[in-house]
Amino acid sequence: MKTLLLLIIFFTQTNFSQPNAVYICSSGTSKKYHYKQDCRGLKNCQYKLLKISLDKAVKEGKTLCKWEK
Ligand SMILES: [Zn+2]
Question: Which of 20, 33, 45, 46 could be a cystine partner for 57, CB 3.0 to 4.6 Å?
């Protein structure tokens, strides 16, 4: 029963989360995007974190954060 519940939670979260969503710091100067919201590269961000699509991040000239390569 517990396993079934976990499976339901897993699939529910998978369906609702965007697989290609990344996080950026909305400082305006940040050129990096991050897969993880709690990435160490985002710890210095004094601005709001934005969740955007990977496509949009790349189109804006952002590159993957050096901590996540
Ligand atoms: Zn990062």
Answer: 33
Q: Is the pLDDT of residue 47 over 80?
A: yes
Residues, Cβ < 5 Å to ion ligand 1: 34, 39, 41, 65, 67-68
Residue 29 located in a structural domain: yes
Q: Indicate whether 52 belongs to any domain.
A: yes
Beta bridge partners of 23: 34, 51
Residue 64 above 80 pLDDT?
A: yes
Q: Residue 49 falls within a domain, yes or no?
A: yes
